[in-house]
Amino acid sequence: MDKRTFLKNSSLLVGGVLIQPMISCSPQKPNQTMTTESLKNWAENFEFSTSKIHYPKTVEEVQALVKKCEKLRVLGSRHSFNKIADSSDNLISFQNLNKIISLDKEKNQVTVEGGIKYGELCAYLHQNGYALHNLASLPHISVAGTIATATHGSGVENGNLSTGVAAIEFVNAKGDLVQFSKEADPDFFGAVVGLGGFGPVTKVTLDLLPTFEVAQVVYLDMPMEALKDNFQEIMASGYSVSLFLDWKSDNVNEVWVKRKVVPGEVLDFPEEFFGAKQAKVHMHPVQEMSAESCSEQLAIPGPWYERLPHFKMEFQPSAGKELQSEYFVPMENGYEALMAVKEMADQIHPHLFISEIRSIKADELWMSTCYQRDSIAVHTTWKQEIPEVMALLPQMEAKLEPFNPRPHWAKLFTISSQKLQERYPKMEEFKSLLAKHDPEGKFRNEFIDQNIFGK
Fold it and tell me: Considering only CA atoms, which of 406, 410, 436, 409 is closest in space to residue 422?
């Protein structure tokens, strides 16, 4: 896939309990319980180590597979860029376990099966008067995979998507169903961002907000100098704010500001914003690309789920040849971290599609990249030039080292397990909790062994 095609496609009450008739939100594999197909991740930068893929249609079938298989991992939307979801033995696909189970209008919560994708869930929530607190850039990723890796959107007051979880159910290594709730179970905080290590997540309950509208504008060519004394103010200037850079100049190429529409209040998007000018046409994060796939801009209000992602729901990503890395540093070090990366600008931009800077609120989830610290995420979408990019990552990590960066669990990094141990205060408790629910390592793989257990 060429650059143009990739960039175009990389888009993206009354009380009581309403019980849904198990609403299925995407096509299922009919009459199929297992395949032996060769499978790659979404970006096609690696092929899974097994071709044995199971397609259970019920929780009971999941339990039976767990009891039967000596080793297995769950396959999500395949949007990971490393081997976190890989298995050399068995993969379980949840594409047939993708239903909305119930909507509780007293607790303002929705319960879904683990395989449902955000793009399948959001319209239903909006139609019923509800919203999620945030969304990632692309809407096609699965709920279970997203929370397992602490995937996020942006906003200084918005936690990552895992922070919207109120309860979780998984099948442990014995094949037993285990349920944790935020209110009742201290181990909940260790299991939500579970990296796939506790077993297949069969059910997730999410906290909901009343539905709302968002409007966004894009500002062009903001001098980086403006970030020096105003970084946190800029990142807090909307419900969600993203900076896009190609590192070719001393400007931030684009600033995307998304603001919540408050009934009765006038939206205030000034024409000039810290030296940047408001765009008068729709923009793509890479300015020379068509904005057809991007969510509406120009301060046009729309439902939360059509504005918080950068790309429209109907633009489904295909096998785009790209690589991604992302590092989380404390919010107070955000500007210094950007300046450190900027020292590599001449090395970075030849291999770059675009970099994005976002903010995420601190949380209490043990393995969250934002555990107990408000964070800035330095995200980079690279061209699929694997040797060159893999040589650059240790250099970028060295530049960020003074800020104790935590890498996104599902993206490319070379940070050692020793440093990961140091940067996650609850790492030992996490490993003990894994051992409790998976004492023989049924759900462990090369990624878990290397990065969590240091083997």
Answer: 406
